[in-house]
Amino acid sequence: MHCPFCRHGDSRVVDSRTSDDGSSIRRRRQCPQCNRRFTTVETASLSVVKRSGATEPFSREKVINGVRKACQGRPVSEDDLALLAQRVEETIRSSGSAELDAYEIGLTILGPLRELDEVAYLRFASVYQAFSSLEDFEAAITVLRADHEAARAAATGGDPDAGTSGADEASSGATGPSPTA
Predict the structure, then answer these.
(1) Strand bridging mode 47-49 / 37-43
(2) Which segments show compositional bias classed as Low complexity (predicted)?
């Protein structure tokens, strides 16, 4: 590391600390030539390989912008989008790979987006999973419904009828005394 003051080709690390989010290391250095101190910030770089073959640095902002389009008109806040982008970056970094396809990043977004908003998930998935027909949408919706049923069954101890209200029974054709006006 060159000293920014005297351009000496070496420096000594005096102190190292990780940043708040753990994605970078802040180092305090001292030049042995002029004895001045300076700070460096080190981050592991993540590169995205685009369809065209071009490579660019990973950007949380690009994740947020892409997901924001899918979330238009949905009850999703900017804070929700920022947390989603952070989760995506953490997942990508934990993979250990320094270069990822843009397509892989899109697929990585799907899980957290599904938890955030299912309509936005379907919009986003239609692009990244290349939905080409109504059957593709129907299949994705069927999977979402099955997951809802499984979650409801797990929450009610496996009884599929537990948790249904009288209104559900009335709408499903069950008979019973009708309310009087």
Answers:
(1) unpaired
(2) 152-168
CB 84 within 8 Å of CB 109: yes
Bridge partners, residue 28, by sequence: 15, 39
Tokens for 26, please give them. 């802040």
Question: Residue 136's pLDDT is what?
Answer: 87
What is the 3-state secondary structure of the chain?
CCCCCCCCCCCEEEEEEECCCCCEEEEEEECCCCCCEEEEEEECCCEEECCCCCEEECCHHHHHHHHHHHCCCCCCCHHHHHHHHHHHHHHHHHCCCCEEEHHHHHHHHHHHHHHHCHHHHHHHHHHHCCCCCHHHHHHHHHHHHHHHHHHHHHHCCCCCCCCCCHHHHHHCCCCCCCCCC
Q: Is the pTM of this model over 0.90?
A: no
Give the integer Cα–Cα distance in Å for 63 and 76: 15
CA distances from 137 to 18, 96, 130, 169 (A): 44, 33, 10, 28
Q: Please give the backbone phi and psi of residue 150, each rounded to the nearest 5 degrees, phi first.
A: -65, -40
